[in-house]
């Protein structure tokens, strides 16, 4: 398997917005955004916006994951909030999420962040990812937003090594 990673720019924005708005099961927050809102996030200072495509021996799976991460006023300056993380169900069980975390973590570390904070917002349709962050060795984060009672927060210290549970070649620009 070969995972191609690219920053979300104008050329990818429409397709990434479509995936954000139609993915339910492997979508940790199920936030829905317009293309203009995705542009606002991708263009904001300190944000990381990544698109992932997967190719394997059977062919090209196309765009399979989108991650939007941004600074948040509720967090420390050295923490980056994973605002949206979604993946296509057709690549589940192939350790792609480990490779995505590694790519995101390295990019965040390079940008000066020391930790990622993931949010899980429980819905009727995304129960399959309720343990996503704990499975990737995130630790429960005490952050509480009163406006989001069904949300939990998880912290990943970027000082620790990334999982080597994947056998995916990663290609980045």
Blueprint of the fold:
Elements: E1 2-7, H1 10-22, H2 35-42, E2 48-56, E3 59-70, E4 79-87, H3 96-110, E5 115-121, H4 132-135, E6 139-141, E7 151-157, E8 169-171
Q: In brief, what are we looking at here?
A:
This protein is of the alpha+beta class. Helix content is 23%, strand content 32%.
Question: What report would you give on this structure?
Answer:
Strand 2 and strand 3 (59-70) form a beta hairpin. Strands 6-7-5-4-3-2-1-8 form an eight-stranded mixed sheet, with helices on both faces. It starts with a strand and ends with a strand. The radius of gyration is 15 Å and the shape is globular. The model has no long low-confidence stretch (mean pLDDT 90). It contains four helices and eight strands. Helix content is 23%, strand content 32%. It has helices spanning 10-22, 35-42, 96-110, 132-135; strands at residues 2-7, 48-56, 59-70, 79-87, 115-121, 139-141, 151-157, 169-171. The protein is of the alpha+beta class and 173 residues long. The longest helix is centred in the middle third of the chain and has 15 residues, at 96-110.
Strand arrangement, major sheet: 6-7-5-4-3-2-1-8
Question: What string, H for helix and E for strand, traces the elements in order?
Answer: EHHEEEHEHEEE
What is the percentage of strand-forming residues?
Answer: 25-35%
Residue windows where pLDDT falls under 50 for at least 5 positions: none
Protein traits:
32% strand; globular; 4 helices
